[in-house]
Amino acid sequence: MEKKATSAGTRRRPARPVVQIPDTNFTEANVNHDTDTLVYAIGGLGEVGKNMYCIEHNDEIVIIDCGVLFPEDDLLGIDYVIPDYSYLVKNQSKIKALIITHGHEDHIGGIPFFLQQVHLKEIYAPRFAKYLIEKKLEEHRLTKSCKIIEINGDSRIDTKYFHIGFFNTVHSIPDSLGVLINTPNGRIVETGDFKFDLTPIGQQSDYQKMAYIGQVGVTLLMSDSTNSSVPGFSISERRVAQAIMEQVRRTPGRLLVSTFASNVNRLNQILMAAVACNRKVAVFGRSMENVLEIGRKVGFIKIKDSDFISGNDLNTLPPNRICIVCTGSQGEPMAALSRIANGTHKYLHIIPGDTVLFSSNPIPGNGVSVSAVINQLTKVGANVVTNSPLTSYHTTGHAPQEEQKLMLNL
């Protein structure tokens, strides 16, 4: 039976419910807690979301990630689905570290709800994820509940039984890490979410360190398998940047671009292309605005203040001088693009001749919602451009089969 919990309120909107899914599969049969090293998932197996993995030995538990799952259509009125934390609540004195691999919601979104049930002194997170978590805790009025310690590929965390190191990976968000956990019974590698990109936007994967870890020996590899059924290699983010630049250059009127808010490197590509083509940029969508603020704060986005305009300024420039970046690439009903398509946005309405670019692919389950937004945009006169094998306006952040093989070989 589903257990409901209520999220802490934010300053911008009232609290909405979350659903907490009980774990019915965890069993302690035939476990020797003195000598065995336990590896188990509180969430994240067989689903895209709720990532939370635990390594336990004797009186110590190390947790990797603390995510949410976004609900499907059968959970009406629910914003987030979170795991059942009851085992960790009961054993919270054993928790020595919560380690975050990167800043996506399915890896950090559960932290405010977790901290309402479990007392933690410290969370270890890479730089960009650290800023996102701090923003999230501020919105939930939990700023003083836990200290966030920044980590990188050279960091180490040592406890009585665990010796933990990290290696840099490439994903669709900056500062993503894989984790090496040395335990009394062998070495565990948790890759985090990854892909291999030989010409990335941002840092490169740490191939040498991965190969060295493999040479020393890995007892258990826990690998991102989101795209394990997809053959071949993914295209490079650099190729996406070139395609976006060409689209911005040849668009005659206003250009609206929608992408994942968390993909700060993609957001930066869009902004740089707009500025290079002498366009001013307006950004709409709360999550996009938050990521833009943090991206500029940490130096990933270096666009000047003078290159941005507000919603009130949209009518002061000719259409070919405007680029609008917004949320809503997944057809979310309340996102900026859906409201623009429906004519309910405060500042922006589609006019014939506008071009709308989707720099994304629909997440499985969102295809109907995305198609509905595209249909509505077309009805009101927009020229809609979507990603395809011929256009390359988007690339995945998860390794397809050939990149999975490379990780296994390393």
How would you explain this protein's 3D organization?
With 410 residues, the chain is of the alpha/beta class. It is 26% helix and 23% strand. The protein has 11 helices and 19 strands. Strand 13, helix 5 and strand 14 form a beta-alpha-beta unit. Helix 6 runs parallel beside helix 7. The N terminus is likely disordered.
Give the count of helical stretches: 11
- Mean pLDDT comes to 90
- Widest sheet: strand order? 3-4-5-7-8-9
Estimate what percentage of residues fall within beta strands.
15-25%
Oligomer: single chain
Query: Outline, from the CA principal axes?
Result: globular
CA-atom Rg in angstroms: 22 Å
Low-confidence stretches: 1-15
Give keywords.
11 helices, globular, 410 residues
